[in-house]
Amino acid sequence: LGVLQQVGAPTELYDRPANVFVAGFIGSPSMNINTHPVVNGKAKIGEDTVDLPAEAVNKLTAEDNNQIVVGFRPEDASLAAPDDSNAFSLKVMNVEDLGSDGYIYGNILTDGSAAEASTMMSDQNKLTTIRVNPRALPKVGDVVKIKIDPSKMHLFAPSTELRLN
């Protein structure tokens, strides 16, 4: 027998998934979902940090081991200024120009620490997908900064995979 994960209209499931499974299942391209360490109330995404809402951080438990699952849809992030302190670095591995839309696929740049490597291990082979203006596509090999729209960030507890915000 299966387990019913969430009941609601398609837009409700898309905008407010109850858990990691629903978040990854609904939408195309799928949501970017990765586990990151929490340091001083921020998600350490690769070599950078991104602000987290206190309401979500305060709901984490000891079982979460100072980690958080961060999810965001490709259309809910954008290219940021190189000096943006609330954005993360992405090495562009592939570029897709669809005329009306552009997508970049890349790897989050990491600082190489052992703690970060173990956290990101399950996410290693998954490229991060960002929808961008097709008239301003970066090139393969470029390192760009990515900013997540804070109001569209989906946060989940690693221990339960349930929504925190």
Provide structural commentary.
The radius of gyration is 16 Å and the shape is globular. The protein has one domain: Nucleic acid-binding proteins (OB fold (Dihydrolipoamide Acetyltransferase, E2P)). The chain has helices at residues 10-15, 20-25, 54-57, 114-120; strands spanning 32-39, 42-45, 48-51, 67-72, 77-80, 88-97, 102-108, 128-132, 143-148, 154-156. It contains 4 helices and 10 strands. It is α+β, with helices and mostly antiparallel strands. A hairpin with a 2-residue loop joins strand 2 (42-45) and strand 3. The strands form 2 sheets. A 5-stranded antiparallel beta sheet has the order 3-2-1-4-10. Strands 5-9-6-7-8 form a 5-stranded antiparallel beta sheet, with no helix packed on it.
Write the layout of secondary structure elements.
Blueprint: H1 10-15, H2 20-25, E1 32-39, E2 42-45, E3 48-51, H3 54-57, E4 67-72, E5 77-80, E6 88-97, E7 102-108, H4 114-120, E8 128-132, E9 143-148, E10 154-156
Antiparallel strand pairs: 1-2, 1-4, 2-3, 4-10, 5-9, 6-7, 6-9, 7-8
Structural key phrases:
10 strands, OB fold (Dihydrolipoamide Acetyltransferase, E2P), 165 residues, alpha+beta, 5-stranded antiparallel β-sheet, single chain
